[in-house]
Amino acid sequence: MTTLLHLDSSARRASVSREVGDAFADAWRRANPSGRHVHRDLAAEPVPFIGEAWTELCDYVLANQITDIGRYKEAVRTPAQAEAWAVLEPLLDELVAADVVLIATPMYNFSVPASLKAWIDQVTFPKMSLAGRRFVIASARGGSYVPGAPREPYDHQERFLRDFIAGHFGVEDVAAVAAELVNSRLDPALAGRRAAHEKSYADALAAARELGGRY
Ligand SMILES: Cc1cc2nc3c(=O)[nH]c(=O)nc-3n(C[C@H](O)[C@H](O)[C@H](O)COP(=O)(O)O)c2cc1C
Q1: Signal peptide span per the entry (predicted)?
Q2: 183 CB under 6 A from ligand 1?
Q3: What separation in Å is there between the alpha carbon of 66 and the centre of ligand 1?
């Protein structure tokens, strides 16, 4: 059975990144009626930051060259490490079981929310491979970061996720859809960009639906 892991990370319930992610997930469910849709809301139910015991598990995996995710549990040797493992194991199991991972994320301070980064820190081990999976990034930003925009070099949201997914998960199959200029809904200084936002928003929803329908 094919499985979609769908992560949300906006602190808002009425959120553009949630809408774009939902557009993908709705189309994916229609295209995969017997598929499994697993939804995790990292903002509503945050995962804890990693602690020292987590780093001990990570160091053991690295020092012992354990690259098989199924063997990570061998690193658990103390009660504190067992506690850290109990937090990360269900998150990791959920990720490994997914065929498609949808990351819906706002841009916060040019990057991703701490809620999403906390999840990334929990599930990422040295030299792990998630090859064979597909990732989709559904994002929303207050400004514009398209090629040629003055703020293009400040995009540490989509660029970070692409680099991270390729560099740490070994996955090159990454699609990204972004709704830009969302702040034009609120900021009088961006009122002149409202039409550009409406187009970016409509295009992002359409692209997310199109992708979801063929994944
Ligand atoms: C804490 C916070 C930080 C933000 N930082 C940025 C930023 O650095 N660049 C930007 O373009 N927009 C920024 N924004 C605007 C959001 O990216 C925008 O509101 C977007 O729609 C958020 O996604 P959401 O609608 O899914 O919550 C920020 C918003 C918040 C709440």
Answers
A1: none
A2: yes
A3: 38
**Rounded to the nearest 5°, which phi and psi values hold at 148?**
95, -15
pLDDT in tens, 151-165: 999 999 999 999 999
> Residue with the nearest Cα to atom 30 of ligand 1?
108
- Is residue 56 situated within a structural domain? no
CA-to-CA dists, residue 55 to 49, 129, 130, angstroms: 11, 19, 21
For residue 43, report the phi and psi dihedrals to the nearest 5 degrees.
Answer: -85, -45
* 55 in any annotated domain: no
Half-sphere exposure of 77 (CA within 13 A, CB side): 8
**Domain count of the chain?**
1
Tokens of 65: 């060259």
C-alpha 63 – ligand 1 centre gap (Å): 39
d(CA 100, CA 67): 21
**How far apart, in whole angstroms, are the C-alpha atoms of residue 155 and residue 55?**
29
Q: Write the CATH number for 151.
A: 3.40.50.360
Distance, in Å, from the CA atom of 139 to the CA atom of 19, rounded to the nearest integer, reads 10
Q: Which residues contact 89 (CB under 8 A, 6 or more apart)?
A: 73
- Report the DSSP pairing between strands 100-106 and 3-8: parallel
- The string of pLDDT tens digits covering residues 118-175 is 999 999 999 999 999 999 999 999 999 999 999 999 999 999 999 999 999 999 999 9
